[in-house]
């Protein structure tokens, strides 16, 4: 089973990257590939650029990575209630290459932020939008107040959130016939 995971942020200290990587640790035995949006930095999408230069190779490579996954674990960072510019830009380019970039792809969709809502705004946007691009969202989870509720060694430390998250992980593992450890 191949998992492709990333935080939808270009911050080198991205809490969403941390959360996505942490989530992969539950899928023992899976072949895990973690992407960093900084490796796929692209000029800001414009129809003029597309006409003149076509779709950049990095957008095609990113799309190929999405396509290679049996499970995508994406943790969405929220900027002003929506996607970060870095993610929106790559999403725009990829969608011009392949409008069904998530076709037949199962997603565990996450978000986290330092705030009380844990990125629920961007989560709501993605829950509506990603299926239009073919995504099958198996489960989704927003972790509020990352700094208080997450610990690098212990994971999620608030009991109710931890239980809710673990239930979702278990459901996804059982979808793939994986044993719970
Ligand atoms: C321009 C900007 C806008 C932001 N807007 C929001 C927001 O709407 N909601 C929120 O919960 N956090 C917001 N934040 C705080 C981010 O959630 C925080 O920076 C978080 O660390 C981003 O995730 P990342 O570390 O994975 O990049 C914003 C931060 C910036 C820099």
Q: What features would you describe in this structure?
A:
- With 181 residues, the protein is of the alpha/beta class.
- The chain has one domain: Flavodoxin domain (Rossmann fold), CATH 3.40.50.
- 40% of the residues lie in helices and 21% in strands.
- The protein contains 7 helices and 7 strands; from the N terminus they run βαβααβαβαβαββα.
- It has helices at residues 15-24, 47-53, 57-67, 85-97, 120-129, 146-149, 159-175, and strands spanning 2-8, 31-34, 71-76, 105-112, 135-143, 150-151, 155-156.
- A 5-stranded parallel beta sheet has the order 2-1-3-4-5, with helices on both faces. The protein has a two-stranded antiparallel sheet with strand order 6-7.
- β6 (150-151) and β7 form a beta hairpin.
- α3 (57-67) crosses α4 (85-97).
- The protein is globular.
Share of β-strand residues: 15-25%
In CATH, the architecture is 3-Layer(aba) Sandwich
Stated plainly, the CATH topology is called Rossmann fold
* CATH homology-level superfamily: Flavodoxin domain
Strand order of the largest sheet: 2-1-3-4-5
- The overall number of domains is 1
Instruction: Count all strands and give the number.
Output: 7
User: Major beta sheet, specifics?
Assistant: 5 strands, parallel
- Low confidence ranges: none
């Amino acid at each position: 089973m191949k998992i492709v995971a990333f935080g939808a942020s270009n911050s080198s200290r991205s809490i969403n990257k941390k959360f996505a990587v942490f989530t992969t640790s539950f899928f023992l035995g899976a072949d895990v590939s973690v992407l960093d949006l900084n490796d796929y930095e692209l000029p800001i999408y414009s129809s003029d650029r597309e006409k003149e230069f076509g779709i950049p190779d990095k957008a095609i490579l990113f799309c190929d990575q999405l396509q290679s996954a049996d499970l995508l674990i994406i943790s969405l960072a929220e900027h002003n209630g929506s996607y970060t510019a870095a993610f929106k830009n790559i999403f725009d380019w990829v969608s011009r290459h392949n409008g069904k970039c998530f076709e037949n792809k199962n997603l565990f969709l996450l978000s986290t932020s330092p705030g009380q809502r844990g990125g629920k705004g961007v989560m709501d946007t993605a829950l509506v939008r990603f299926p239009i691009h073919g995504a099958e969202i198996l489960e989704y989870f927003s972790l509020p107040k990352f700094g208080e509720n997450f610990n690098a060694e212990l994971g999620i430390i608030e009991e109710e959130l931890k239980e809710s998250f673990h239930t979702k992980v278990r459901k996804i593992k059982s979808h793939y016939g994986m044993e719970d450890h």
